[in-house]
Task: structure prediction
Amino acid sequence: MVITIKIDNPDLEQKLIEFVKQQKQDLEEVTIEALNNFIDLFHQKKKFDFKKKDPKKYSRIIKRDYNEEDVDEVALLHIKDSAKYVHDLRREKRV
Result:
């Protein structure tokens, strides 16, 4: 099988030529290796590795004084069963 690659981007072409020179391989070897790596990426199902941060280190306590004008903002803090509360509210609005 013969594969021809046409590069219309002169910058990319120059980068490829420089890369091939650095690898001390011919263009065919570099291209085959690049294609194999590209294909292997699709066959691997890797999970992303990321460091989990310590919540104690990156969290902070928000302190705020409330007054009677702020009641609307904190009114729902007393609710223990939110599902029942919403269910009851919906029933009230239907009637």
Notes: The radius of gyration is 31 Å. The mean pLDDT is 79. Residues 62 and 87 are 30 Å apart (CA to CA).
